Amino acid sequence: MDQPRAVVIGGGIGGLTAAVALHQRGWAVTVLERAPALTPVGAGLGLTPNAQRALDVIGLGDTVRSLSAWQGDGGLRAPGGRWLSRTSAEAAADRFGGPVVLVHRATLISLLASALPEGVVRTGTAATLADPGGTGHRARVTAPDGGEWEADLVVGADGIDSRVRRALFPGHPGPRYTGFTTWRLVVPAPERPFVPHETWGRGRLWGTQPLKDGRVYAYAMAPASADAHAPDGERAELLRLFGEWHDPVPRIIRAVDPGQVLRHDVHEMSVPLPAYHHGRTALLGDAAHAMQPTVGQGGNQAIEDAVVLAHHAGPGHDSPDSPDSPDSSDTSDTSGIPAALAAYSAARLPRTTAIVRQAARTGRLIAVTSPAATVLRDTAIATVSRLVPGLLLRGFAGIADWHPPRRTYAAGTAHPS
């Protein structure tokens, strides 16, 4: 019987992770990316222990950790510099089974791409889902240049503006604009050290984190009109919004090349999809469950999705664990793919919907703008954090302590420490 074939639409973190996971389970995979090159839009990415465990499944966890900065002690501050809550890296690692690590998105993209055979990734290909497939027939993907692919499985990993999602669920409203925009930037190593932190102001947020090579990754969020841009540049806008905040915020803004500030509006899937699949086509990452960045789980959940999807899709004929793996997810004849994708939806939709809602609740706390409400919020955080040490960690209970399905580990036997 022929090797089962998967087509992944989108060459971002989620799409490439899915491609690697499926390839390792014996699938023939093609990745179609519309951009002319695998140049990630973004800067840093915090990988929480749940996503690291998913990367352990495909044998890349240790490499990612070696290329990442391990997040140290830090916490939440007010714009004047006062600490509202402190966090212990050791306590977080003890509670969730590992540290949070920070990696540049370009590093992770390159690592994932290098785990795939040459020729698997095709850039400059704006793919369209022509037929989602079904129990009795394969899915079909086309491209404007006349390219056409039939597949036993199609993975829609094409982001917030997913064309695959619109094809599967044309009546769904899709993501909505939250009223916030974000900025991301990377600057050279600073002359003076700093403590990693996130700072909440009146409707504004700033975060500063170190990268492995000594550079600094910073991110910011503030209310803005959709599709707005500062006429004098985004660095000037950041100085207006955050230039009077505590050190090191102003000096980080002044250190960035004006042309290297990334700005993107924040969208969220406030109305969940009815499922993350239809026929032989599955959605993952932002295409399925776009969320606010307020709990740092967008990329992490895409990685989880990818590994769980590969688990339910089952091993292909060349997979080392297929001969001795009697399992309902073993669909090497591909007839069971629609049912396997239903299991994927059942596994992922409740979890990711809950995280989307948690991110929205956190966003509402950050969105407070009145002086009185801001003082009340900050006082409550500081007081409860003093009375209940480790308060901030509680928000990640049920998120960072997630484990992948055991049977997806590469050797089929061991659970990584």
Question: Mind explaining what this structure looks like?
Answer:
The chain is α/β, with parallel strands linked by helices and about 425 residues long. The protein has a single domain (about 5-410), classed as FAD/NAD(P)-binding domain, CATH 3.50.50.60. The protein is built from 13 helices and 19 strands. It has helices at about 15-25, 50-55, 60-65, 90-95, 105-115, 165-170, 235-240, 250-255, 285-290, 300-315, 335-365, 370-385, 390-395; strands at about 5-10, 30-35, 45, 70, 75, 85, 100-105, 120-125, 130, 140, 150, 155, 175-185, 195-200, 205-210, 215-225, 260-270, 275-280, 280-285. Helix 2 runs parallel beside helix 10 (about 300-315). It is globular and about 65 Å long. Residues about 315-330 and about 405-415 have low confidence and may be disordered.
Report how far the terminal alpha carbons are from each other.
Answer: 37 Å
Number of DSSP E strands: 19
Biggest sheet details? 7 strands, mixed
CATH topology: FAD/NAD(P)-binding domain
Mean pLDDT across all amino acids: 90
Question: What portion of the residues fall into strands of 2 or more residues?
Answer: 15-25%
User: Which word captures the global form?
Assistant: globular
Radius of gyration, in Å, reads 22 Å
Features:
33% helix; 417 residues; seven-stranded mixed β-sheet; globular; 13 helices; six-stranded mixed β-sheet; alpha/beta; disordered C terminus; FAD/NAD(P)-binding domain; single chain
Summarize the structure.
Helix content is 33%, strand content 22%. It has 417 residues and is an alpha/beta fold.
